[in-house]
Design goal:
This protein is α/β, with parallel strands linked by helices. The chain is built from nine helices and 17 strands.
């Protein structure tokens, strides 16, 4: 299982144009060749934060200019899940053909089940979409909070824990048959059970946790989390920073307790790695995509 980081689609300083995202995705897909040439079965998850943000900006423009209805978060998640999967599928196909590798690439729009009783629903914290004035925010549906940098008010939504992944058995079957499968995009479309099946909810699921859950459900051997640094660091960007080659689950928990990893960056990735390693006994590798052909790449979380 490989979880693409945000820089797989959009890099610092870029506007997020279609061409930019195409080029970034193809570069990331090419970095997976070392895995593909070993004939490893592969499932890909990915983020969608910037893309959902851009979609909400477009919707806000349509609302102001044409009184168009703003779509809910689960709908936006499904839209971006499909569009990003299309980019990855197209790029991966190009990489495979260039290398003479015969593998199918399959994308699944994926719903991820959360609990309606998750405490996160009582305390939404994840900011999404455009900034508004306090007066504009007061007139809109949902929960809005002031930005810490004073840029305005933004909608905040819950980030509940993923519990189950719809159709994960089909994902596993396709992967074990040799197809490269793209799933749980953006952490999955958040849904809760109801009497008729599932219904979408206004929430954002952490994509690394969703990818870890997918890896666990499929009994994966390895879980890769691709990010924008080659290794995990203690005291990151400080004079005494230290790169980690390996850490046990116990060490990773202790470093988390000490606040060594940023909550908005590395901490969720380490938690996802712990979750996978504890459940499956395999290893989680956190690294930058360009390092994958290096056998010593990244930081390994081990039992």
């Amino acid at each position: 299982m490989v979880a693409f980081g945000g820089n797989a689609l959009l890099r610092a300083g870029q506007k997020g144009t279609y061409k930019e995202q195409q080029e970034n995705v193809e570069r990331t897909c090419a970095s997976l060749l070392s895995l593909l040439k070993r004939d490893i079965n592969l499932v890909i998850g990915h983020g969608n934060g910037p893309q959902v943000g851009n979609e909400l900006l477009r919707q806000d423009g349509g609302r102001k200019a044409y009184s168009l209805e703003v779509m809910p978060m689960d709908f936006c998640g499904a839209e971006t899940q499909g569009s990003i999967a299309y980019l990855i599928e197209s790029a991966m196909e190009k990489v495979l053909q260039r290398e003479g590798l015969n593998r199918r690439v399959v994308s699944l729009v994926t719903r991820v089940e959360v609990s309606a009783d998750d405490p996160a629903f009582k305390n939404p914290t994840k900011p999404v979409g455009p900034y508004y004035t306090q007066e504009e925010a007061a007139a809109m549906e949902g929960t809005y909070k002031p930005d810490a940098r004073g840029l305005g008010w933004r909608k905040v939504v819950p980030s509940p824990k993923p519990l189950d992944i719809c159709n994960i058995d089909l994902v596993e079957r396709l992967a074990r048959e040799g197809s490269i499968v793209i799933t749980v995009g953006g952490g999955g479309i958040p849904v809760v059970k109801d009497t008729l099946g599932h219904k979408g909810v206004e929430a954002v699921i952490d994509k690394d946790l969703a990818s870890a859950l997918a890896a666990i459900k499929m009994k994966a051997d390895e879980f890769y989390i691709l990010t924008d640094v080659a290794k995990v660091f203690l005291n990151f960007r400080k004079e005494n920073e230290q790169a980690l080659d390996t850490m046990t689950v116990a060490q990773a928990r202790e470093f988390l307790a000490q606040g060594m990893f940023g909550e908005g960056s590395m901490a969720p990735k380490v938690r996802a790695g712990i979750m996978f390693v504890e459940a499956c006994g395999g290893q989680c590798i956190i690294t930058e995509a360009g390092e994958l052909d290096n056998p010593l790449a990244g930081t390994r979380i081990i039992p």
